[in-house]
UniProtKB/TrEMBL annotation:
GO terms for molecular function: ATP binding; DNA binding. Belongs to the FtsK/SpoIIIE/SftA family. GO terms for cellular component: plasma membrane. This is S-DNA-T family DNA segregation ATPase FtsK/SpoIIIE. Residues 454-658 form the FtsK domain. The chain crosses the membrane at residues 29-51, 84-108, 120-140, 160-180. Residues 225-268 are annotated as: Disordered. It comes from Mesonia algae.
Length: 806
C-alpha cells in the first residue's frame, strides 16, 4: 500500500516536472557562449601560470586580500584556478579541461548533436589522468608537469605494482585508447606500412623509368650525330650503337615493371618408389587471393570519411521547439480534482455493490483526458460477471466515454476509464520535448501522444510498418496526421525521409507544399507534389511499386535484408554508386480520405496499395491511410490484413469500431483526439498530441526558408494507361471489325461507342476498345466526356487512302 502511495505521488508530481526539463535555444546560446569564454580564460590563465607560477606561489590563499598582486594574466582568479588545476591537480594535462569546456560551449552554442560530447568528456578526462600519471612517472622532480594527482597516482601504482608494473599499466591504457577511441588495429598499422612500402617502391620504379627515357634520348641524339660522319666511321658507329641499343634493351627489359605476381603457389612433391616403378607426383596448392573489396571500402572511408547523406544540405537546421505552442504554459499540466475523484470512486463502488460485486482495492491513475480506476474485486468474484455487466455499469455511471477493460491484460485487475470533467490538452511541444522522443533510437520515431498514466507514447513507423487511421469526422484525424508528420520533421533530415502526400480534400495537407523541395516526393513532370486528383494517385502508387521493385534489386545486389543494413553498407562506402547504388531515403505515403479514393478508383488503387503494404516494409516505404468512413467496403479484408497498426478515433457505432480494431471500444471514446491504438496485440488508449494548423505553418515556414534541393525527390516515371491513350497499340492487334467500324464512324461523322455497339452488334467493352484503337490510329479525337468524339477523317475516300498508306 505504502508503495502504491509513493507511486501515486510520483504520478501526481510528474507533469509539474516537465517545464523544468526543457532547455530552450536561448538558454543553450547563453550557456554555450559562457562556456566557450570560460575555456579561453582557463587557457590564458594556465599558459600564464607556466611562466609566473613561482612568483604567484606566495599569493595563493590570499584571494580576498585586494592588496596582494599576482603576475598571472587573469590575476587572482587565474593564479588560484591554475594553482588548483595544474599544481594541485593534473599538471599540464589540465589544458584538456580548458579544451573540453570550450568544446561544450561550442556544442551548445551551435546546437550540435550532444551525443558525441559525452564521448569527448569521457576520453578527455581519461587522457588527462593518463597523461598526468605518465608525467608523474617520468618527471618526478617537476611537480608542475604531472601535478599532485599525477604524482600521487603514480606513487600509488608504484607502491602496489612497482616500477615495471606501472609502466605496463600506462602502456595498456595507451593501447586501449588507440584501439577503442581511434580504432587503430594491428591490421591498420600493417596496411599503412604496406602502403608506404608500395609507394616508395613505386617512386623507385618511376625514377628508373625516367632514367631510361633520358638514356634513350641521349642515344637517339648520338645516333643522329654519327649518321653524319663518314661511311666507315658510320659502320663502326652504328655497330657500336647497336651494341649500346642491345644493352639498353636489356636494361629496359629489366626495368619494365614485372607482371603482377600470380597468387603464390606451393609445391608439394609426393615421391614415388622408383624401384617399384612408381612415378612421383607434384601437388600444387594455390594460395587464396586476398579480397580487395573490404580494404578498398576501408581506404575510401579513411580518405573521405563515411558517406554523409546530409552533406548536400549540411547547414540544414531542424525546427526548434519554440515553434510549437505550450498549451499548458499557465496551468502546468494535469490538474487533479480531489472531489471529482472521490465522487467517481463512490459511484463505481456503489454501482458495483448494486450488482453484488465487492471491491477489495481501488486505485486511480489520472490521465490527460480520462482517469483509470483499477479495481481488484474481492476473492471469489468472477471476472466474467463484471464483463457481462459492462453496459449496465456504464449506464449507472452515466458518463459519456466510459470504457471497461475486464481484465486489464497482464494485470489481473479490472479497469474502468472515466472521462475527466476538465481534460488537458496534450501539446505537441510536450511530447516532442520529452526525453522518450528525443532519445528514441528508432528509424522513424513518431510521438503519438500520452497514455492514461501521462507517459509520452512513441512508436516506430518503420516497425508498424503501415498505419491505418480511422474515425468519424471531427474527432481528431487530421490533427493526428499532422502529429505524425510533425514528429518526423523534428527527427529526420530531408535526406533521410520523403513524403508522398495524397489529399483529395485539398485543404488538410496543402501547407506542406512549402517544404516540397526538402521533404516531398513526386512524379517527374507533375507540377504539384501534393496529389489532390484521384486519377493521378494511381500513377503515383504504380510508380511507388516500380521504386519498390528497383529497391529490392539494389538490396539483392548488396546482399542485405533491409534498408537499414543497405544504408549502413552504403555509408561505409561498400557499395559502388557507379553500379546504381545510392542512399535510400525512407518514403512515407500519406493518404488522407482513403474512402474517397476507393470509391472513385476501386481495384485500381487497392491492388497497388495492397502490394506495397505486403512487400514494402523491408525497403523503407511506409503507408499511412486515413479515412472517416470506416466501412467494410473501404477497409477491406485485404487492407486490414496488411495494416496491423491501427488508430481509431471516436466512431459512432460498435460495428465501425469492430471494422477498424476488430473489437469494440472506439465507440466509447470521447473525441477530440481521444484514441485507441493497436499494433496487432494490445489496445492502448492515448490522448493524441495536439498540433494546430498555425503551428504546422510555422514549422514548414521555418524549414521552407532554408536552402533546399533543386527539386522535389523524383519517383520513377510511370505512364498510366489513360495517359498513353493506347498510342502504342499494334496495327496487327487491331480488332477484326476495325475497318468496318471506321467506315461507320466516318460515314456518321460521330465518334460514339454506342453507335458501334448498335451497328456492329458488339458489346460495350469491344466497342470501347475499337474506339481506343481508332484514337491511336488518328481516326477519332480524344475522349471528351459526355460529348461524342470528334471524327478526324472527312469521308470514306480519305479513310481508304489513310488506311492504305499506313
Ligand atoms: N489531440 C487533440 N487534442 C485536443 N483537441 C483536439 C485534438 N484533436 C482534435 N481536436 C479538436 O477536434 C477538432 C477537429 O479535429 P480534426 O480536424 O483533426 O478532425 P478530423 O477527424 O480530421 O475531421 P474531418 O474528418 O472532418 O477532417 C479540432 O479542431 C480540435 O479542436
Amino acid at each position: 500500500m505504502a508503495k502504491k502511495k509513493t507511486k501515486a505521488k510520483k504520478n501526481k508530481k510528474a507533469p509539474s516536472k516537465f517545464p523544468k526539463v526543457i532547455i530552450t535555444r536561448k538558454h543553450k546560446v547563453l550557456l554555450g557562449s559562457f562556456l566557450m569564454l570560460l575555456g579561453i580564460a582557463l587557457t590564458i590563465a594556465f599558459i600564464s601560470f607556466l611562466f609566473n607560477w613561482k612568483y604567484d606561489q606566495d599569493t595563493i590563499g590570499y584571494f580576498t586580500d585586494r592588496n596582494i598582486e599576482t603576475k598571472n594574466w587573469l590575476s587572482k582568479f587565474g593564479a588560484e584556478i591554475s594553482h588548483f588545476f595544474i599544481y594541485k591537480g593534473f599538471g599540464i594535462a589540465s589544458f584538456s579541461l580548458a579544451i573540453l569546456t570550450s568544446l561544450t560551449g561550442i556544442y551548445l552554442f551551435f546546437n550540435l548533436n550532444s551525443k558525441s560530447l559525452k564521448n569527448f568528456w569521457f576520453w578527455g578526462i581519461l587522457v588527462m589522468i593518463w597523461f598526468s600519471t605518465l608525467l608523474g612517472f617520468f618527471a618526478t622532480k617537476n611537480a608542475l608537469l604531472g601535478g599532485v594527482i599525477g604524482y600521487e597516482t603514480n606513487d600509488f601504482l608504484q607502491d602496489y605494482l612497482g616500477f615495471t608494473g606501472t609502466l605496463l599499466v600506462l602502456i595498456f591504457v595507451m593501447i586501449a585508447y588507440l584501439v577503442i577511441r581511434l580504432n587503430i588495429t594491428p591490421e591498420l598499422v600493417a596496411s599503412y606500412f604496406e602502403r608506404t612500402k608500395k609507394e616508395v617502391s613505386q617512386d623507385f620504379e618511376d625514377s628508373k623509368a625516367k632514367e631510361e627515357e633520358i638514356l634513350q634520348d641521349f642515344l637517339k641524339k648520338e645516333q643522329e650525330e654519327q649518321t653524319q660522319q663518314t661511311h666507315n666511321v658510320q659502320d663502326n658507329a652504328s655497330a657500336e650503337a647497336k651494341d649500346v641499343k642491345a644493352e639498353t634493351e636489356e636494361t629496359l627489359q629489366e626495368s619494365t615493371p614485372a607482371p603482377k605476381p600470380e597468387p603464390k603457389s606451393e609445391k608439394i612433391v609426393i615421391e614415388g618408389n622408383e624401384e617399384e616403378g612408381d612415378v612421383s607426383m607434384e601437388v600444387e596448392t594455390t594460395v587464396e587471393e586476398e579480397e580487395e573489396v573490404d580494404t578498398l571500402s576501408k581506404k575510401l572511408v579513411k580518405d573521405f570519411g563515411e558517406f554523409d547523406p546530409t552533406l548536400e544540405l549540411q547547414n540544414y537546421r531542424f525546427p526548434t521547439i519554440e515553434l510549437l505552442k505550450d498549451y499548458n504554459a499557465g496551468g502546468g499540466g494535469i490538474t487533479i480534482n480531489q472531489e471529482e475523484l472521490e465522487e467517481n470512486k463512490n459511484n463505481i463502488v456503489n454501482t458495483l455493490k448494486n450488482y453484488k460485486i465487492e471491491i477489495a482495492q481501488i486505485k486511480a491513475t489520472v490521465g490527460p483526458t480520462v482517469t483509470l480506476y483499477e479495481i481488484v474485486p474481492e476473492a471469489g468474484v468472477r471476472i466474467s460477471k463484471i464483463k457481462n455487466l459492462e453496459d449496465d455499469i456504464a449506464l449507472s455511471l452515466s458518463a459519456l466515454g466510459i470504457r471497461i477493460i475486464a481484465p486489464i491484460p497482464g494485470k489481473g485487475t479490472i479497469g474502468i476509464e472515466v472521462p475527466n470533467k476538465n481534460s488537458t490538452i496534450v501539446s505537441m511541444r510536450s511530447v516532442v520535448a520529452s526525453a522518450k522522443f528525443q532519445n528514441a533510437e528508432m528509424q522513424l520515431p513518431v510521438a503519438l501522444g500520452k497514455t492514461i498514466s501521462n507517459e509520452t507514447y512513441v512508436v516506430d513507423l518503420a516497425k508498424m510498418p503501415h498505419l491505418l487511421m480511422a474515425g468519424a469526422t471531427g474527432q481528431g484525424k487530421s490533427v493526428g496526421l499532422n502529429a505524425v508528420l510533425t514528429s518526423l520533421l523534428y527527427q529526420k533530415h530531408p535526406a533521410e525521409v520523403k513524403f508522398v502526400l495524397v489529399d483529395p480534400k485539398k485543404v488538410e495537407l496543402t501547407l506542406f507544399n512549402k517544404i516540397e523541395r526538402h521533404y516531398l516526393a513526386k512524379l517527374p513532370n507533375s507540377e504539384e507534389a501534393i496529389i489532390t486528383d484521384n486519377t493521378k494517385v494511381i500513377n503515383t502508387l504504380n510508380s511507388l511499386c516500380i521504386e519498390m521493385d528497383s529497391r529490392y534489386d539494389l538490396l539483392k545486389d548488396a546482399m542485405v535484408r533491409n534498408i537499414k543494413e543497405y544504408n549502413e553498407k552504403f555509408k561505409a562506402r561498400k557499395l559502388n554508386p557507379e553500379n546504381g547504388h545510392k542512399y535510400l531515403p525512407y518514403i512515407v505515403l500519406v493518404v488522407d480520405e482513403f474512402a474517397d479514393l476507393i470509391m472513385t478508383a476501386g481495384k485500381e488503387v487497392e491492388t497497388p496499395i495492397a502490394r506495397l503494404a505486403q512487400l514494402a516494409r523491408a525497403i523503407g516505404i511506409h503507408l499511412i491511410i486515413a479515412t472517416q468512413r470506416p466501412s467494410v467496403n473501404v477497409i477491406t479484408g485485404m487492407i486490414k490484413a496488411n495494416f496491423p497498426a491501427r488508430i481509431a478515433f471516436r466512431v459512432t457505432s460498435k460495428i465501425d469500431s469492430r471494422t477498424i480494431l476488430d473489437t469494440g471500444g472506439a465507440d466509447q471514446l470521447i473525441g477530440k483526439g481521444d484514441m485507441l491504438y493497436t499494433q496487432g496485440n494490445n489496445l492502448v488508449r492515448l490522448q493524441c498530441a495536439f498540433v494546430d494548423t498555425p503551428e504546422v505553418e510555422k514549422i514548414v515556414d521555418f524549414i521552407g526558408a532554408q536552402k533546399a534541393y533543386p527539386d522535389a525527390h523524383l519517383l520513377p516515371e510511370y505512364e498510366g494507361e489513360e495517359s498513353g491513350t493506347g498510342l502504342d497499340i499494334d496495327v496487327s492487334e487491331r480488332d477484326k471489325l476495325f475497318r468496318e467500324a471506321a467506315e461507320i464512324l466516318v460515314t456518321a461523322q460521330q465518334g460514339s461507342a454506342s453507335l458501334l455497339q448498335r451497328k456492329l452488334k458488339v458489346g460495350y467493352n469491344r466497342a470501347g476498345r475499337i474506339i481506343d484503337q481508332m484514337e491511336a490510329a488518328g481516326i477519332v479525337g480524344p475522349f471528351e466526356g459526355s460529348k461524342a468524339r470528334q471524327v478526324l477523317i472527312t469521308d470514306l475516300v480519305a479513310l481508304d487512302e489513310f488506311l492504305n498508306n499506313e
